[in-house]
Design a protein that fits this description.
- The chain is mainly beta.
- It has helices spanning 30-36, 95-100, and strands at residues 2-14, 17-19, 25-29, 43-48, 54-62, 69-72, 84-94, 104-106.
- Strands 2-6-3-5-4-7-1-8 form an 8-stranded mixed beta sheet.
- It starts with a strand and ends in a 9-residue tail after the last strand.
């Protein structure tokens, strides 16, 4: 049996841009992607702490070191620049494997990886 579990999470990052006139997705700083074990094209859920919105989209790799969290396309209507969000990815895995799996959770400061 396969179950869906938390794989990675960027906890409490701030939206830096909202670009309605784009095809869609979320652009995320490559440093944050590396730290959270996320990749371009991966499906993510975004939870807005400011207004309770929850939606899904996919990742576009952003400029390394930029701190960029940019919502593109329709997602740009779900958050305002400055809103705090949680970006979550999930993985399907065997039930037994899931019992011992440890997700990657990153707590950035000012949209930068804290070392």
């Amino acid at each position: 049996m396969l179950i869906e579990v938390l794989k990675s999470k960027l906890h409490c990052v701030q939206i830096t841009e909202a670009n309605l006139n784009y095809i869609g997705s979320v652009t995320i700083d490559e440093d944050l992607l590396d730290a959270a074990n996320m990749i371009a094209g991966e499906k993510v859920q975004i939870v807005n702490n400011n207004n309770g919105e929850r939606f899904e989209t996919y990742i576009i790799k952003g400029e390394r070191g930029s701190g960029c969290i940019c919502l593109n396309g329709a997602a740009a209507r779900k958050c305002l620049v400055g809103d705090t969000v949680i970006i979550i990815s999930y993985a399907l895995m065997d039930f037994e494997e899931a019992k011992t799996f440890k997700p990657t959770v990153v707590f950035p400061k000012n949209n930068r990886v804290v070392k």
